[in-house]
Amino acid sequence: MAEEKEFQPVIVGFFCNWCTATAADLAGTLRMQYPANIRPIRTMCSGSVDPVYVLRALLGGADGVIVGGCTPGDCHYVSGNYKARRRMAILKTMLKTLGIEDDRVWIRWISAAEGAKFARTMREVTESIKKLGPNPLREDWSI
Amino acid sequence: MDLSYYPGCTLKTAAKGLEDSAIASMNALGIRLVEIERWNCCGTVYSLAEDDLAHHLAPVRNLIRVKEQGSDRVVTLCSFCYHTLKRANLLVRNDGEKRKTLNDFMEEEVDYNGEVEVLHLLEVLRDEVGWEAITEKVKVPLQGLKVAPYYGCTLLRPQDVAIDEVERPTILHQMMKSLGAEAVDFPYATECCGSFQIVGNPDFINQRAWEILSSAIRCGAEAIVLTCPLCHFNLSQRQPELVKRYSDFQGMPVFYFTQLLAIALGIDPEVCHFELSYGDPFSLLKSRKVVS
Amino acid sequence: MGSIDGSIARKALIIGGGVAGIQASLDIADAGYEVILVERTPSIGGHMLQYSEVFPTLDCPQCIMTPKMVEVGQHPNIRLLTYSEVESVSGKVGNFNVRIRRKTPYVEWDKCTGCGECAAVCPVEVYSEYERGVTAQKAIYKPFGQAVPAVFTVEKRGYSPCRVACPAGVNAQGYIALISQGKFPEALEVVRRTMPFAGVIGRVCTHRCETECERGTVDEPMAIRTLKRFIADYELKAGREKVTPVEKTRQEKVAVVGSGPAGLACAYDLIRKGYPVTVFEAMPVAGGLLRYGIPEYRLPKNVLDNEIDYVQELGVEVRTNSRVEDPGKLFAEGYKAVFLGTGAGMSQKMNIPGEDTPGVIHALDFLKQVNSGDKASLGRRVVVIGGGNAAVDAARVAKRLGADEVTIVYRRSRDEMPAVAEEVDEAEKEGVRLHILAAPTQVLSQGGKLTGIECLRMELGEPDASGRRRPIPVKGSEFILDVDNVIIAIGQVVDKAGLPEELACTERGTLSADPVTFETSMAGVFAGGDMVSGPADVIRAIAAGKEAAESIDRYLNGADLCEGRPRQLNKVEEVSKEGVLPRSRAAMPMLDLKQRERSFAEVELGLDEKTAIEEAKRCLNCAGCCECFSCEVACERKAINHELADRYEEVEVGAIVVATGFELTPVKAISEFEPDLDILDGIQFERILCPGGPTAGVVLRPSDAKEPKEVAFISCVGSRDPEHGVPYCSRVCCMYLVKQAMLYKHAVPDGQAYIFYMDIRTTGKGYEEFVQRAVEEDGVLYLRGRVSKIFRDGDKLKVWGADTLTGKRIELSCDLVVLGMAMVPDPAARELMRILGINTDMHGFITEAHPKLRPLESSVPGIYIAGTAQGPKDIPDSVAQGSGAASKVLALFSQQEPVLEKAEKR
Questions:
Q1: Is the pTM higher than 0.90?
Q2: What CATH number should be reported for the domain holding residue B259?
Q3: Chain C: nearest CA to B187, how far in angstroms?
Q4: What is the DSSP string of B51-74?
Q5: Do residues B229 and B279 both lie within one domain?
Q6: I need a labelling partner for A40 at 20 to 30 A (CA). Which of A78, C18, C200, C354 fits?
Q7: What is the chain B residue with the closest CA to C793?
Q8: Which CATH code of 3.30.420, 3.40.630, 3.40.50, 3.30.70 fits the domain covering A11-131?
Q9: Do B168 and C793 touch (CB under 8 A)?
Q10: Chains A/C: 3 or more C-beta pairs closer than 8 A?
Q11: What gap in Å lies between CA B94 and CA C208, rounded to an integer?
Q12: Hey, of C146, C743, C773, which one would you mutate to test binding to chain A, going by the most A CBs within 10 A of its CB?
């Protein structure tokens, strides 16, 4: 019987420049280990993450998406992260109707000093998506 | 060796146990405590008022007695006497004007210029005899009896009369160790027992004594050892009241440091006058097989 | 006087890489001038980098500072010299000549990438200045993640006492540190760097190291010898692979006479330097007294064989049954240098009547016989004369051979017996009787058969030349012991038969050799071991062999024999034992007494793995880095070099800015607060609050890692306290304590924070509002009063204070206490002030030229001040002063010549 390779999810991360991306840098400086399933994309603010980007990622075959921003109250652009939160909340309700588990999209607040939290969160999202399995759209569509 | 000894009032009455056991122990250690003649009450409290010189007449007169009797050192047992005499001595040594006034006033006495050194017996035990020498003379080791050394205030404050480090004194600890007992640390070791508040505010003393004693019990002590007759009064003689008021308190034996010294040196327990202490401290010693 | 002539060196020196120093550097560099920034620690950043969030904005200080730090590191005009100190300054404003000591980090920083593989394998943990004791760091460390420069540094404090005490210089700390990590083969490697006899020495050494061990001042010394034996046995049990022979890169042949420890150690060092070495041994098998003297139950032959084989596998040729008497002949055979290590293998005679009676044996001959496998026959009753190891060995061997009554007769007291104390104890346990204070007068026989020995009682008189009390015979106290055999073990002497006359001897009958170089009176002939010293211990012989090898190497290279010898090792001075809890030393399991009867099975059984690792963990790591070289092996860039030395640099600068910062007075200075793990100073609590800190920002208390639900913050500890501390106000504590209270509440929302205060000093911008926020939004409770005592009561800390506003005493039961300690100028900079010649006030803060109008100029023109070195202040003020000092420097640099009010010539 052919050996089944363990499912390695592809997770796209939209990380805000001022906080979460810097936390990612710090995790690197501190040599913290976390899974390589994440494809990080640096945006200036979590509030600049258009929900369409998230959908694009999922339609492109990503098994999960995580948006990382500054902690509430500390957004570099004052209120961008609040907007991100509202958008992602609405997007998740839409995903359910599209037949995609809404738990595939995460939004987390990771400040620049929290390198350890960043690494931990990446581990958590990878584990969670692994349990959910591959993106269901892959079965229906050839993506 | 002879050493001039100033007893003070309480040592002849309520604190007889302290005196007799001290004299007997020191004899066994080769030091004769020679009571000075014609001594008077030390005045009990050192007056803090700047212009209350009359109050200092009493202690200074005692020091003159010592000087007259040809000695340059005097040892006391009572913490209050020690404190009062020592501070009056410092006043005479450091303040020329007041010294002159005192000497002029006491024209019938010889002039006193601070020639006498005031010592507490604990200092003599630590510095002249030495703990190792005492351990060598111990005939009845105290079998690891758990005693909490209680220092009180007047031996340690203010800093210029303190016989040991103010916050973390060890002199009584070391003495207990040298006698074969185990010294138990507890947080109230240097907290005031309430002193003369017993006269006007006995409720406060009850509270205070209970705090001190129960803290020692919580830390594992079987008994308290102390040096001062007033502390002894507040902590030992008040115990019947405490037993009545605090249901979880059953009493705790209180020893003078010289009583334990005398027992350890194998001297007849009679000199300790245990009948003057509350409860029966002697029973504790019997039950721990220190004495038969 | 007017202006000073001379051009200005338009280069600035900034001393201190905290926020003030960094600001000053950037301002001056941005203006186009060169800056040299000198920082004492391996990274810039200062105290600000230790905090979690700064008031009143609650910015993350690492986030706002690191861009500036990186800018400093990369600025074309800034030369960053970290881990460096100013040694001396001369000159005057415009032309200061400064000598800077670049302390060696033992890592080549231009190669280091900061990858951290070295720290991962380092077995030693040391106090971390950055973490301030909340956690430890490794001996090779990067101070924190965002360090600039992002490189590693090795902390060495000198040599550990064990290493200094060992005559051969075995690195005890090194192998013990590796054992504590379970790295047994690596540990054995460390020993083999010095000598090949881990198993032998691990059994028979007199362990001078253990006498010096600092752990001994806490409870008991480390079991250094036993741990060495453990790693040797571990390899032996698993089976050792053959070692590759060393490539012989030298032509000159060296001869070693004698295959005892001295000879073999000498050969070992020489072969590793590439010399062809031949060892000549008179006996049939190699090993000297290790084989023929020490009995099997103390040193099993297979252990010795294994280690001698190791030496031979490296390429040393050992020729047994080859007696050499005249070293001169060896030169004729082509050897270029000779080492003599034939020991002191002859027994000393007692010179008493009857010594020649059959049945009288000399201990060394007896032991040689038994160790050769020959059966020695003894009678039922045996007496051994002497008190050294040979006597005790002979006695215990006699017991094992079947003698019922074995007695040791020694002329002094038991305490003065030179034998190892543990050996004497075991001998007695095995049934050997000790007859002290007695000496034999004659051997008795009847019809040619030994019947007994007559002895005389002794008493001890005054000390003799050796320092031991002289035994004085007690007249008329003769007594007789009925025995079948007498074994004499009163001393060993050198067998001088056949030695050439040119070899000078000492008065004591040993060979004369230089104590440092081990040269003898014959050119090219070196000697060491018992042959030179008289009977001594094995490790001393090994040390002699090693030193002789060094001499031979220098001799054959025509180099000076004495240069740099003897090697001075500076012992580490102070070893902190704070927080070390007493734990007893691992006990050596011993063979049951019943099983020892008639058996030569090894008596000391050795430790098991678990016990060995536990024992190794007791080591205090006195020297910091233990020089195990695990880091060197792990570093793929080969950036680590433990031989690197400090470097010195001379620079010429026109202006100096002193920004050396502050320290907090230590918590232990306050005697009213009982020392406790849960009483912290502000910076320690910052580390716990910091999201990048050791607890990742989760607030846990040090004693039991539980979340504290009640925290007391105490202001003015040591400040405003002329009697026990400093009289001044430290200015920032009110703000940082309330900030910490707020951050604590953010992290533990159901916790309660109390602040004891005398006043609330919130003079900066936004500060008052900050305090109001703390009280209104975070429920921080302010108590106006001081604290008189803090002590532990079980799980809690009791805080006794006062609330002056209600007039009542307060007793709080808290889980954690944070103290606002007084701010003082950094004590590490005290010497620097003297070097610079600038005035400081009685507290050590730098004195300004005028307190109101010239706050940034020191008493010396050209030397400017910035930051907390001048006085307590917060971060915005430090930054402002940094820029201010920079402007002073730039003003100086824009002049043609320095123009001053008063000219100062240094």
A1: no
A2: 3.40.50.11810
A3: 7
A4: T-THHHHHHHHHHHHHHHTT-SEE
A5: yes
A6: A78
A7: B187
A8: 3.40.50
A9: no
A10: yes
A11: 56
A12: C146
* Dist. CA C808–CA C903, nearest whole Å: 61
- Together in a domain, B159 and B221: yes
Contact A22/C at CB under 8 A = yes
Is residue B292 in a domain? no
- Type of residue found at C299: L
Residues in chain C closer than 8 A to B168 (CB atoms): 671
* Helix, strand, or coil (residue C87): strand
Q: What are A68's two structure tokens?
A: 């990382």
Handedness of CA C368, C369, C374, C377 (dihedral sign): negative
Instruction: Assign residue B81 the CATH number of its domain.
Output: 1.20.1050.140
DSSP per-residue codes, A8-52 = ---EEEEEETTTHHHHHHHHHHTT----TTEEEEEES-GGG--HH
Instruction: Judge if B79 and B135 occupy the same domain.
Output: no
Please state the rounded mean pLDDT for residues C666-673: 88
Mean per-residue pLDDT over chain C, rounded: 93
Band of the pLDDT at C687, cuts 50, 70, 90?
very high
- Is residue C248's pLDDT more than 70? yes
> Residue C101: left (phi > 0), alpha (psi -120 to 50), or beta?
beta
In this structure, the answer to whether residues B106 and B145 fall within a common structural domain is: no
- Report the share of chain B in percent with pLDDT over 90: 82
Closest residue in C to B168 (Cα) is C671
Domains in chain B, number: 2
Burial class (CB in 10 A: 0-12, 13-18, 19+), C379: middle
What are chain C's domains? Answer: 11-103+650-661+826-905 (3.50.50.60), 104-156+624-645 (3.30.70.20), 158-240+576-623 (1.10.1060.10), 247-345+495-567 (3.50.50.60), 347-493 (3.50.50.60), 666-822 (3.50.50.60)
Q: Which residues of A touch C692 (CB under 8 A)?
A: 26, 30, 113-116
| Listed residue (B198, B250, B254) closest to B223, CA to CA | B254
Residue B164 lies in a domain: yes
Q: Is the dihedral of CA C27, C29, C34, C35 positive or negative?
A: positive
CB-based contact (8 Å) between A30 and chain C?
yes
C349-363, C369-383, C575-589, C610-624: range with highest mean pLDDT: C610-624
Based on the fold, state whether residues B83 and B139 are members of the same structural domain: no
Interface partners of chain C (CB pairs < 8 Å, 3 or more) are A, B
B126 is a domain residue:
no
Chain C contact residues (CB < 8 Å to B): 671-672, 674, 789, 791, 793, 798
Whether C798 sits inside 8 A of B168 (CB atoms) is: no
Which residues in chain A land under pLDDT 70? 1-4, 143
Which residues of chain A from 91 to 120 reach within 8 Å of chain C, CB to CB? 111-117
Q: Which domain holds residue B167?
A: 131-287
Give tens-digit pLDDT for C147-190. Answer: 999 999 999 999 999 999 999 999 999 999 999 999 999 999 99
Interchain contact, C691 vs A30, CB within 8 Å = no
Which chain A residues are within 8 Å of C63, Cβ to Cβ?
A: 22, 112-113
Position with higher pLDDT, C347 vs C854? C854
Does B277 fall in a domain?
yes
Give the pLDDT score at C326.
85
The residue of chain C nearest to residue A22, with distances taken between CA atoms, is C63
Shared domain check, B282 and B170: yes
Identify whether residues B180 and B282 lie together within a single domain.
yes
Q: Which of B121, B143, B178 is the last residue of a domain?
A: B121
Q: Which residue do the tokens 């009896």 mark?
A: B145
Contact C692 A29 (CB under 8 A): no
What does the alpha-carbon distance between residue C658 and residue C829 come to, in Å, rounded to a whole number? 10
Q: Do C789 and B187 touch (CB under 8 A)?
A: yes
Same domain, yes or no, for B144 and B89?
no
